From TrEMBL:
InterPro entries (UniProt xref): Serum_amyloid_A, Synovial_Prolif_Regulator
Family of this protein: Belongs to the SAA family.
Keyword presence, ATP-binding: no
Native source organism of the sequence: Pongo abelii
Protein name from the UniProt record: Serum amyloid A protein
Highest taxon of the lineage: Eukaryota
GO cellular component, as recorded: high-density lipoprotein particle
Gene this protein is translated from: SAA2
Keyword annotations of the record: Acute phase, HDL, Signal
Lineage, highest ranks first: Eukaryota, Metazoa, Chordata, Craniata, Vertebrata
Segments crossing the lipid bilayer: none
Length: 83
């Protein structure tokens, strides 16, 4: 768990160094919202084996936001894989 926390922190620091901190956080928030919307759509659709499609759609939408969105999608994907 400490290693995972360290990796998340390092990736956050590296992502923020390339852009403004507040724009990065805004992109990360919007990317997390995209991932949540894809998850909600998956729950609503309730089709068998549709999780990969909705996960890919959430990642795509979040990554379009910029580096912050891509970072949020990566972190959420990492944590969802651990569960």
């Amino acid at each position: 768990m400490k290693l995972l926390t360290g990796l998340v922190f390092c990736s956050l620091v590296l992502g923020v160094s390339s852009r403004s901190f507040f724009s990065f956080l805004g992109e990360a928030f919007d990317g997390a919202r995209d991932m949540w919307r894809a998850y909600s759509d998956m729950r609503e659709a309730n089709y068998i084996n549709s999780d990969k499609y909705f996960h890919a759609r959430g990642n795509y939408d979040a990554a379009k936001r910029g580096p912050g969105g891509a970072w949020a999608a990566e972190v959420i994907s990492l944590f969802s894989a651990e569960l």
